[in-house]
Design brief:
Two copies of one chain form a homodimer.
Chain A lengths: L3 E9 L3 E3 L24 H7 L13 H6 L6 E7 H4 L24 E5 L7 E3 L2 E6 L3 H12 L3 E4 L3 H9 L5 E7 L7 E2 L11 E7 L5 E7 L3
Parallel strand pairs in A: 1-7, 1-8, 3-4, 3-7, 4-6
Antiparallel strand pairs in A: 2-9, 5-6, 8-11, 10-11
Pfam family, one (chains A, B): RibD_C
Protein name (chains A, B): Dihydrofolate reductase family protein
Organism (chains A, B): Antiquaquibacter soli
Chain lengths: 220, 220
């Protein structure tokens, strides 16, 4: 059975998955890069982004990378919200924006972008973006078909993850709790009272200061 | 220097330190005992409450008890909110209510109860309750004097802890993050944006499933 998985979703101690005031210049709003500082030094991020440097070399391979690297294993397609694809809101003014990732996006698979404003499919390297207005269940059905028997990754942002959790479609949720208090932004947990009844939950503290929390859907 | 310490303050994944609908019958509201399930089997709780039984014997002595037991070390006085002392609100109808703890409360020290409705001091065993209407700073000054050189414990509830954190009076905050999503109740983190700038934060995952998070005030 193909599963729906979320990986590397970072939240603050107070449960915000992104800050207030997202824009092209500040994709995480006032949180800046603070939710992802644990991620930047990992080999997974370095090899994904080409950010190899004297400071990080080819990247760390400790506990944080162990969790981060699971991102790509056995994934055949991704679903993401439009806000992850780009900072624009409302109808597309043109089709010049082609995502944050340049000509070779790191997905290497079909990507279903959920948006009320459809546009033509976009092929970049070995990633194809499909822009569709679909319910969570229908988006999962499409992505599962595109994944060809592999798992589907739910790439965020937090609003999309929450919608899929509310619809009880998520099988695996890897959170990273970062020891900061953001105070404002997009809350992950709103509307999810009692979520623990459907999941086994395991926490692992990392020497970097973050805590990896994995929620695994119990058999239905 | 006498420090102000908070111990064993449990919060849900979504940051609620108590549920909705607190009453005499449900001191944690709809959270019931779920925030304290990690605590009940510990030797610290068993010896405090006299709940020794065949099921728990004299209590567990693992990681959770290691954290829980720090509650009493080097403490000379406690400060608590009136909601921790009892379920009544508004003016005292009478003085019959003498707390949840019976004739031998587990504090063994002076306790300053913060209330807008003062009443005569109450002596129970070797615990004396002082009912005072004071600002956080003045309450701490009184408790520090009563503690005779030892530390002061801030006993909760969450509203009181948040007020003392806002006033930057807390030196040590031990939280226990319980893997449940409460959805409603009293939030610990509201109004505390940027708290991490004043604290070192260390997380330890327990085999029981909770995560102990210790915030230590940086030198001023």
């Amino acid at each position: 059975m193909s599963r729906l998985r979320v990986h590397n979703l970072a939240i603050s101690l107070d449960g915000f998955a992104t800050g207030e005031g997202q824009s092209l210049e500040a994709p995480f709003g006032h949180a800046d890069g603070r939710l992802m500082e644990w991620f930047f030094p990992t080999r997974t991020f370095v090899s994904m982004s080409g950010h190899e440097s004297e400071a990080v070399g080819t990247g760390t391979t400790g506990l944080d990378d162990e969790f981060a690297s699971r991102w790509g294993h056995g994934i055949g397609a991704e679903i993401m919200g439009r806000n992850k694809f780009g900072p624009q809101r409302g109808p597309w003014q043109d089709h010049e924006w082609e995502g944050w990732w340049g000509p070779e996006p790191p997905f290497h698979s079909p990507v279903v972008v959920l948006t009320h404003h459809e546009r033509p499919d976009l092929v970049l390297g070995d990633t194809t973006f499909f822009f569709r207005s679909l319910t969570p269940a229908d988006a999962l059905a499409l992505a599962t078909e595109l994944a060809g028997g592999l798992d589907v990754r739910l790439g965020g942002g937090p609003t999309v993850v929450r919608e899929f959790l509310e619809a009880d479609l998520v099988d695996h949720l890897h959170l990273v709790v970062v020891p900061i208090v953001l105070g404002r932004g997009e809350r992950l947990w709103d509307g999810l009272e009692g979520l623990e009844e459907r999941f086994d939950i395991e926490s692992t503290a990392s020497p970097s200061g973050v805590v990896h929390v994995v929620l695994s859907r119990r058999p239905r």
